[in-house]
Fold this protein.
Amino acid sequence: MARDISVIYTSIIDTKNTRDELNGLNSNSQVAIYKLWAYIVSVAIFTHELLWDLFRDEIDETLTSRINGTTYWYAQKALDYQDGDELKVLGGGTYLGYDPIIEESKIVTRCAFDDSGGTLDLKLAKGDVGSLSKLTDGERDGVESYFDKIKFAGTDINIISVQGDEIRIDGVTVYHDGVRSDADIASDVEVAMDDFLVNLDFNGIFYVEYFRDAVQQVENVVDVNIAQISLDSFETGSAVILPITRRISLYSGYAKIHDHTELTVTIETAIWDMT
């Protein structure tokens, strides 16, 4: 770290005072020539040390960004995939990439990874927040071919991109304080349910209590009772219903309410016990 100019200047003067041959440089004037030269040299040394600091920061940043072959690197490469575009040899033959970079061709918008089982699982989805969907068979084939070309030798990659999980809710009773109508409360409750799922982290965990809390935060709601809640997983292609007791991991990485037309939400006015 670059030293302050005053520290460097003091060091020069202290060193001068240890040299007998420089005893003649003893003026008390603040503008003595030897003091001016000491200050000029101090500024030069400070500038030199500062430049070395900047150079070191640049090297550190370069080393930090060189994550080739790590799980984070593969996740970033998934987001960089350009559907339908050909890879080119770039960087003087050091890597494969796209030229030009076409943002509209990048179809993967969400990626999560898991390498705990020895195989690198890359969970992918496309679309915007609130409207995520799985890759088509052709898009998935393109991603797999892409990774076959850029992956490091010995890396076993499994691409996962399936239909979004669906939260099935049976028997929800919402109690409110009676200030607003049942219809208004019911509408806001459905919005709160959707917003909760939209705001879940990709590949996150669905917690029943957090979901209940989100519904209970609707204005004028005082209590929420959920009789049963489950998840439809499409891991095998067709729906498999899994009960949720406390929490569940989202296999597809994202979720939505199963079917609003089948969603049974009972709205009741809370009965206050004044005794």
Q: What stands out?
A: Residues 71-160 form one domain. The chain has a mean pLDDT of 89.
